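Obj: model holo form, ligand = zinc ion.
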Amino acid sequence: MKQWLITGALLLSSAVANAEQAAHWTYEGAEGPEHWGELADAYKECAIGKNQSPVNLDSKAEVEAELSPLTLAYQAGGNEVLNNGHTIQVKYEPGSTLTLDGHDYELKQFHFHSPSENQFDGKNYPMEAHLVHADKDGNLAVVAVMFEEGAEANAGLKQFWPQMPKEADNTVALTDKVDVSALLPADHDYYRFNGSLTTPPCTEGVTWLVMKQPVVATADQVKIFADIMGHPNNRPVQPLDARVVMK
Ligand SMILES: [Zn+2]
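Output (holo structure tokens):
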């Protein structure tokens, strides 16, 4: 009996924690970005954090640094595409890594925002991809790629764009494994700064690596994504506060 009570209490407290963790949020209105911090205790950092993402990358305020080249060892490994109502996300199987400061981060998933979340000199791009990596302790590093519109269809997107689920809360197994490296620009120069998740719970301690060179996608490709989302899915830029952006 006592055992049952303890188990019951644990189940209850974890159910409460999960409900809070999963408090509903949106990109506009009463549950929009201005209110994320009030929607759940677990979302507090969205309101009070001092290292929040996204940010405006101001070319006049960046600091020249000897940033080491990014070591990206990616292989084709995207095996599922998910529409979670907030974004379209491709899940990646183990085996693709980013090495930063001699430290390995494994690519877990990548997803999209339209318009872009980060800005260059106050300017949004039509779309931005976030490649989310985690090290063995769960520390996150995100490689961000901007998309500008052009005449040529983006070959990286072509791999899975037709398979994106149109309805929220759907996952589709990809017929061919997606290679994320097809989404990267030729030039791997990047900006580096500390930030956060750009969605609740807005957890900080995320290393951001934003590619300086945008890649090209057609207006149609961007529109297909925006139409599936049905609303902009970008958090507004957050104050840099005491942070420095290195380039
Ligand atoms: Zn993102």
